[in-house]
Amino acid sequence: MSSSESGENECMCWAARDPSGLLSPHTITRRSVTNEDVSLKITHCGVCYADVIWTRNKHGDSKYPLVPGHEIAGIVTKVGSNVHGFKVGDHVGVGTYVNSCRECEYCNEGQEVSCAKGQVFTFNGIDHDGSVTKGGYSSHIVVHERYCYKIPVDYPLESAAPLLCAGITVYAPMMRHHMNQPGKSLGVIGLGGLGHMAVKFGKAFGLNVTVFSTSISKKEEALNLLGATNFVISSDHDQMKGLEKSLDFIVDTASGDHAFDPYMSLLKIAGTYVLVGFPSEIKISPANLNLGMRMLAGSLTGGTKITQEMLDFCAAHKIYPNIEVIPIQKINEALERVVKKDVKYRFVIDIQNSLK
């Protein structure tokens, strides 16, 4: 590697060094651009609860130093000789994975998130060359073009970042389960980064949207800021009873443990309940499922095909996440606030103006 190349591959970032999860400035080396790679200057990176989980080693598999961030937006600075989908200057996004086997049935369908050999996560993953992947809290990233997305040029980069995890996590199952039918009714459980996007997509699809929350403080914002049709405190037995068999769909974004049966009862016959959060267990009365002919489905982010579709949909319908933009110097404080659910509704790091 020539000295000019090594300078080009050097990358400023913020990394956690141990399970305290405390992030501080660090330098890493990115690979050189190969034939099918795209190198992008990162302008923005969304802050996801996943960043908390892995910086703090909550799953016991964190590899330090760890550079989090998998909601990445930026501008192409270099492309490999075989890259045809992107050119220098394009606005691009990178989401939760940066590699897959590219030959299994799922990869062939553009559903790489379900790759038979396992998707390679954007950070703390093991790439095919054996290296540990480093995420978007960094100045640039080099990614195979297949895992890059075109961000429409009139769509703000800071708004695009949260779509790449929070957005796609709700959009993919909503499309898969045909929730884009105007006039139908959707229940959204939890009003955080994912929940607020489910409300926005629901409205864009022409659905009547009911938000369920344990916190009355969210009522005002659910109805007035996000434009939900209805707001229900889930612990209010009478309110819940009044909604029995009234919803076509439910998207459950709550990560904490909660009862499922009270919500399941709100679905119409043959209604669909999609879970995208990770509670410690799911308990449901079989009668609730069987007698109601209801469906319980899980989902993770989404393949490359549906992710690109979602970005184009958001640009066409002018759907923007509600974000709080922060400099990277405030990241430790922001992660603490994510834990406390004190953000409306997604932090986005202004990498280009603060990572120096």
UniProtKB/TrEMBL annotation:
It comes from Camelina sativa (False flax). Its cofactor is Zn(2+). The lineage of its organism: Eukaryota, Viridiplantae, Streptophyta, Embryophyta, Tracheophyta. Keywords: Metal-binding, Oxidoreductase, Zinc. Pfam families: ADH_N (PF08240), ADH_zinc_N (PF00107). This is Probable cinnamyl alcohol dehydrogenase 1. Homodimer. Belongs to the zinc-containing alcohol dehydrogenase family. InterPro entries: ADH-like_C, ADH-like_N, ADH_Zn_CS, CAD-like, D-isomer_DH_CS1, ER, GroES-like_sf, NAD(P)-bd_dom_sf. Residues 21-349 form the Enoyl reductase (ER) domain.
